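Example record for the data management plan.
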Amino acid sequence: MAPFEVTGTDKDIWEHELADFLPDRIIDVHTHVWLDRHKRHGPDEHARTVSWPSLVAKDCPIEDLEKSYRLMFPGRSAKALLFSNVSRGDDIDAMNAYIAEVGRSHGHPALMYSFPEWSGKEIERRLKAGRFLGVKSYLNLTPAYLPRQEIRIFDFFPPHQLDVLDWGHRVVMLHIPRDARLRDPVNLEQMLEIERTWPRVRLIIAHVGRAYCDEDVGDAFQRLAATKNMVFEFSGNTNDRVFEQAIRAVGPERCLFGSDLPLTWMRMRRTCEDGRYINLVPRGMYGDVSDDKNMREVDGPDAERLTTFMYEELLAIKRACARAGVDRHGVEAIFHANAERVLGWRMP
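Corresponding structural encoding:
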């Protein structure tokens, strides 16, 4: 059974917009793979994240991920940087073990989900045991007493862990916190501090710093243009103007393709109003979304024309590359070569 339906709209976009744009080999640096049986199924009294992603998929086994690539990228060879989808109370050991297992058996690189309370020795032990390239963590894993608006990067990637990750030249997939997103001065200072203090960490800034709307950027790219190490991936984002700014600030050689699958199965189009992103989705497809400020339903022809989140993102990357003057070599770097360099991993 396919994880989503391919429509005539999807086929038209692939044939007329994307088939000639995407290279033959693709590495997706941001994918979540997990099994539902490892998840907790109760309310999270300390929830700090938006709830709409849970409407798209209850899980994403490796078979569904690989099927997604065959459906979305026909005729292309794709590999993924795998990591799980973790909340407090989940079976973290089973989730990381599943990632390690399917990464090895299916030929994908993998990251370990980490908890901020783990010691440096514990981080290193787990990384070696699972043969992970590095770590992913998330703001929802910080102590419950921290207000969401006050969470900092170092609250879920503490310095003692960064010491170990730097020593091992490990990958860190960083989803920054805080309501102001990429323009937040605390986020920017701590991103720059990681670059200065832990220069051997392979720092990947997820979702272009969660800059989903133009208002999320501020002067971030002026400040980050002088950096040398950190790279930016485009997953879960459809803002071509933000992508263009990233490309112009750090060059296409420091930008990477990521999808955020299975989230990008969603049939949608994103717009922004007063600095807030809104996902336009077909009425009824994702249940009752009336209380979600980031979701809005549409009907009729507007709904019928909606494609997948994945294709919306790829179209935005294409527009950004065209405006920034990225040539074919640069496009291939964004979708493949840069990931091999940053991860230190070669696609079979």
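Summary line stored alongside the record: The CA atoms of residues 37 and 110 lie 20 Å apart.
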